[in-house]
């Protein structure tokens, strides 16, 4: 599989790693950790040197129960960091973690390369038309509810078939709009119980039937540390285990806080 990033066809046969750069004060693991230009540049350089193909910038915390912020505040956080990274790393492939079409459009115009939408087009009716206009790769995630309420009482008759149906419906809409590069993300932790998350992880290979690259984001999430009775800070080993399972089940991109360990997992699984 390939995706077109800034005019270059990027091969996903060997899985890629996407490093997370949160510019929020309240993200569940690293919120508030990076406060100034030096911090953003140092962490980005570290992740690129460790083997990240993409850097995913988030300016709106989507952890369960996160505070809602305005579009203006999200843009004020996002755009200066995009511009800073593009200036200092001209070849960088930036993914914009936002469900707002205006935020992603202004960020793409500032030099970003990919859209990462946690709502799969459900929270902004202009998103699909914006993706079609921009013709950039679009990561479409499944989420039940919103970040503010998604973990209050997630319910499914069958989580695997319902998430599959969601993607089939949304992919049809995107293909009608002639959007070529769509990546799917089942949305671990976004409106799912611990058991539902593991049901999806166990059956991730079924999503290959959608004929779209698969992105997996389980890095340091509560589905890991709650099961083990630990914390996000102690969940690196658990993250590597889950990433390895995801790779064996067909994942093409790992979205992670810890790039070095994810690249090592890709290298070992690829050797098989």
Write a structural description.
An 8-stranded parallel beta sheet has the order 8-7-6-5-4-3-10-9. The protein has a two-stranded antiparallel ribbon with strand order 1-2. It is built from 9 helices and 10 strands. The protein has a single domain, classed as Alpha-Beta Barrel (TIM Barrel). With 272 residues, the chain is of the alpha/beta class. The longest helix has 18 residues, at 71-88.
Q: What portion of the residues fall into strands of 2 or more residues?
A: 15-25%
Reported by name, the CATH topology is: TIM Barrel
The arrangement of helices and strands along the chain is: EEEHEHEHEHEHEHEHHEH
The tally of beta strands, per DSSP, is 10
> Quick one: CATH superfamily?
Dihydropteroate synthase-like
If you compute it from the alpha carbons, what radius of gyration comes out, rounded to the nearest whole angstrom?
17 Å
Distance between the termini: 19 Å
CATH class division: Alpha Beta
Spatial strand arrangement across the major sheet: 8-7-6-5-4-3-10-9
Number of domains: 1
> What percent of the residues sit in helical stretches (DSSP H or I)?
25-40%
**What is the 3D shape?**
globular
H/I helix tally: 9
Low-confidence stretches: none
Provide the CATH architecture. Answer: Alpha-Beta Barrel
Biggest sheet record: 8 strands, parallel
- Mean of pLDDT: 93
Would you summarize the structure shown here?
The protein is about 40% helix and about 15% strand. The protein has about 270 residues and is an alpha/beta fold.
Topology, element by element:
Elements: E1 2-5, E2 8-11, E3 16-22, H1 37-49, E4 54-58, H2 71-88, E5 94-97, H3 101-109, E6 114-117, H4 127-134, E7 138-141, H5 159-176, E8 182-185, H6 194-202, E9 215-216, H7 222-228, H8 236-248, E10 253-256, H9 259-271
Helix pairs in contact: 1-2, 2-3, 3-4, 6-7, 8-9
